[in-house]
Amino acid sequence: MDSVGIVIARRPPSESSFEFELEGDAAPGDFVEVPVEAGALVARVAGVRVENQYLAESGVVRELRLGLRMPSAAALASAEVRVARAEALGIVSGASVLPPIQPPSPGSRVYRAAPETLRALLGLAEGGVELGRLWRHGLEVELDPERLFRHHVAVLGSTGSGKSYTCGVLAEEALERGLPAVILDFHGEYATLGERYRVRSVRANRVKLEPGSVSPDAIADATEMTDVQRDLLYLAFDEAEGPSLEDLERAAERVAERYGFKRETLLAVLRRLRMLKAQRVFTGEGEPLYLSEGEAVVVDLGLGLPGGATRALAGAIAWWLFEGRRAGEQPPFLLVADEAHRLLPQDEQAFSKAALRLVAREGRKFGASLAVASQRVVGLDKDVLSQCGTKIALRMDSPTDLAMLKPLLGRHARLLPRLPTGVALVAGVAVGYPVLVEVRKRRTSHGGSGAPLFAR
Predict the structure, then answer these.
(1) Mean pLDDT of 167-191
(2) Rounded CA separation 375/350 (Å)
(3) 266 is in which domain, residue-wise?
(4) Residue 456 — pLDDT band, cuts 50, 70, 90?
(5) pTM for this one?
(6) Are 180 and 71 found together in one domain?
């Protein structure tokens, strides 16, 4: 192993932190280990400072003004010492990880953490999900697929930080294991998965869905109905003799007469139902969304429809998939919701939010996995965010978003504004401790690069 320093006792080492004088390369965020009686004490470098005995006291400028000579450059250089502060994470003993209950002895050698030590500490799984490499270390970060997917994932970061790219990596990893992936795609970024995997692309309004197979809330949201219009719609749902929009219209007419709804309320509901037919939304036409092993279904949400209709379609698809999985009619799957803040608005009621909350809360029991991606943490539903067991946070510099992430990521959130593109802070159930990961190169090309602004 490479020695990077020696434990010093200027501040006595404790079981939680220690200092060491550097004799090699180490930077904040690096992992180091020190042999102790119980095993290998693993720590993360929290900071590095430079000390010099000639310049330890104040008053250097005053002395220069008085004509006193500074030590030579060679003397200053020879007196310079770099001291690192490290925070203990745990003691690795074989395959076991113990809490940091033993401080290192002053004079002990500090080594760059060995790959096998880090794999044990972080709970990495050989042959697991290949997310990328540990930044500044090179260790392959392979995550346990059960812990990663079953407990859901949130991918967060500002525009251009690599969110959609990372979602593509997650989709590839799911497909490599035969887990079907359904991707709610607003910008046409995921069709390129077809370069390597079986991909079915379908427009959201061409998925076979009709009123009888979705919640009435989806119909009401798609057409932005008022409360009284919703009342009439819900009664018509119970009255309808069939699953089509036409059956629902006839039921609405009967219910309106029976319960004395105003004529204008009935006309408004009928007009909205006919508008759905014109938009080809919930008409029962198209192809049924049944999943097969190792197949990706890319659902195109960039239809130019009103926002309410687009959200309702996405919510209906999520709801349909989950109910199918609960009934044993669908295989286990991964649902990827890119631009999730559009489907999970924090301060609005939406059927898409209710449907995705259902997947987030109950999906792990049935093998329905969820990955949400967003650049607007503040505008994202906190219920779903809290249900995501693993957070993959890329570069983000919005003070409000960072403040929202701090309770979830702790002091590590301060790293986010300075992360390079494609480097993510990964925290949660899939890793033993938060780590910086350079996301791997995709096996298929990325469809979200965008067109150049200027000709070359």
Answers:
(1) 96
(2) 19
(3) 211-279
(4) low
(5) 0.89
(6) no
